[in-house]
Amino acid sequence: MNIVGLIKTMRPKQWTKNLILFAAILFSNHLFDLYFLKLSIIGFFLFCIFSGNVYIVNDLVDREKDRMHPKKCMRPIASGAVGSKEAILFLIITLFGAFYIAYKINFMFFVIGLLYFLLVTFYSFGLKHIVILDVMTISLGFVLRALGGVVLIDVRISPWLLLCTFLLSLFLALHKRKSEMDWIEKGHKTSRKILHEYTPELLNDMLHIVTSSTVMAYSLYTFSASGSMYMMGTIPFVIYGIFRYQYIVHKKGMGENPELVLLSDIPLIINILLWAISCIFILYFI
């Protein structure tokens, strides 16, 4: 069994998206509760398995189409480095193991993990071919990740944060579509038929709405958060992060791989760290 190829198929670079699960423990003022922290870390790794297996399903479904793509043809399943039967066996073992652990830890976390897996599987089989619903499904997947962190430690967080999660992930998904369209306009082939339903003008209009709504939703959260007068000071970090990401997409053409942006752009990484440190200091020490 090609373990390296199978892990590569699970897209480890995409696992940064599961960090949203820690929003619950951070914003519920339980970050330094070791028991809750341990549960959140376990939940993070379980969601890495859930999301990783979704990519295996996706690559199994799209293996023929991926072979036509200039980059996706190098994926282990599309290239033949990992066989279909081998991938299915690995998927069954890891997925059932992860769901068993989730069930033993917290039943509601198990339910949300199952809903997430089903949602993104339906995305792979059909929802990704329906205009607008394709990007909204991606965003709902992020919301389910955040809710998983909430139910895992049984806390309550502001609904504005869940709205921010939805809007920010929609922002990333729309930029991904826009970058994919730019790729086509440069003469490259694509296997994603849904791109023909979008136009640059439509995506720009949607991005204008989502970008301003994201900033507003986060601002409304800070107005009602603990230490609101100081939390409002974190708004510039959010605005800079959004603007920096747009700069990277337009100047460096990396919108098709948002996970690489989050892992490689030093100013953006510094900004995220400063935002996180500021939130921790305000929520826990003021």
What does this structure look like?
With 286 residues, this protein is mainly alpha-helical. It is 74% helix and 0% strand. It has helices at 3-9, 23-27, 34-61, 63-66, 76-79, 84-105, 107-125, 133-153, 159-185, 200-224, 228-231, 235-252, 258-264, 266-285.
What is the gist of this entry?
With 286 residues, the chain is mostly helical.
Q: How much is the average pLDDT? A: 88
Largest sheet: none
Distance between the termini: 53 Å
Which structural class fits the helix and strand makeup?
Answer: mainly alpha
Low-confidence residue ranges: none
Number of strands: 0
Q: Please indicate the percent range of residues in DSSP E strands (runs of 2 or more).
A: under 5%
Order of helices and strands: HHHHHHHHHHHHHH
Element layout with pairings:
Layout: H1 3-9, H2 23-27, H3 34-61, H4 63-66, H5 76-79, H6 84-105, H7 107-125, H8 133-153, H9 159-185, H10 200-224, H11 228-231, H12 235-252, H13 258-264, H14 266-285
For this entry, give a set of tags.
286 residues, 14 helices, mainly alpha, globular
